[in-house]
Amino acid sequence: MLARTADNLYWLARYIERADYLARVLEAALRLSAMPRTYAGPTNEWDSALATAGCVDEFSAHYDVANEATVTEFLAFSSDNPSSIRNCFEAARSNARTVRTALTSATWNAINGSWLDLHRYDAGAASREDIAGFLRWAQETSTLIDGSAYRTMLRKDAFWFTRLGLNIERADNTARILDVKYHVLLPKHEHVGGPLDYFQWAAILRSVNALTAYHWVYRESVKPWLIADLLILNDQMPRSLAACYGNLVQNLDLIAQSYGRQGAAQRQTRAVRTRLQNSRMEEIFQGGLHEFITAFLADNSRLGDTINSQYLI
Fold first, then answer.
1. What is the pLDDT of residues 292-303, one digit of tens each?
2. pLDDT at 36 exceeding the cut of 60
3. Tens-place pLDDT, residues 85-105
């Protein structure tokens, strides 16, 4: 496979996963903002949405204040934000069009159909109901595209490179949403373990479709250290860091077997995977969750660079 074809497939999957993630982040922020102020008090869910999306500086260059209207516009529709949901779908379709022959007809139709549907939202969203509808559409469309690829693509290099992009992006997103909840979302005057803290954690679990899974696994009320355990170390949770790196190891090994050569990407991925397998939540909290996630994000970014240099250029 040509490096540029692998690059298009890799980024196609990353953009689709990013669009889904941003839709979930905005949905969680809308849910938190709908809490009665007499119950929740002043919150900073819109600042946290920007921090989770990793685009605080870009937002500040275009807007003076973070509120529902400005953050929703920037993360969902803005052409000035390269990672807005609209631009993610545009970029995914552009990548897919370039490698049309590497995709099945079902996958191409799902991507192209989503791009055509996207034009229904050219004028943005006029109301909160319209925004909620757009966010549901983004999540359902991302699931449709991912599902069509999973169910119809041959298990060969084209499919494996899409899985690399999806899992690199998903691991980054899961780590960021955990880090931001610990360091940004809960106002300083609120108590850890209080009603607002509980509601926010439940919203975070819903944003990654993990609230039911949490209760199945732990059978307890929502507790921060158990949520961290689920989203970092639990292989059964598809969005956990451990599950993402299990998938990365598997797909990079399949690529190496197909091409007859391993490299730095395989070694780095196995090192992170082993570190996650050997970690315990008590040790992570003792050393600092923020420090653990910061180190993980740096490792994940380095792996992306290594995959790029090893396969995509």
1. 999 999 999 999
2. no
3. 999 999 999 999 999 999 999
Q: Structural domain of residue 81, as residue ranges?
A: 3-312
Structure tokens at 63: 């807007």
The answer to whether residues 46 and 55 touch, using CB atoms and an 8 Å cutoff, is no
DSSP annotation string for the chain:
--HHHHHHHHHHHHHHHHHHHHHHHHHHHHHHHTS-HHHH-S--HHHHHHHHHT-HHHHHTT-SS--HHHHHIIIII-TT-TTSHHHHHHHHHHHHHHTGGGS-HHHHHHHHHHHHHHGGGTT--SSHHHHHHHHHHHHHHHHHHHHHHHHHS-SSHHHHHHHHHHHHHHHHHHHHHHHHIIIIIS-TTSPTTSHHHHHHHHHHHHHTT-HHHHHHHH-SS--HHHHHHHHHT-TTSTTSHHHHHHHHHHHHHHHHHHHT---HHHHHHHHHHHHHHT--HHHHHHH-HHHHHHHHHHHHHHHHHHHIIIII-
**Lowest mean pLDDT: which of 216-225, 235-244, 266-275?**
216-225
Domains: count for the chain: 1
Say what the pTM is. Answer: 0.91
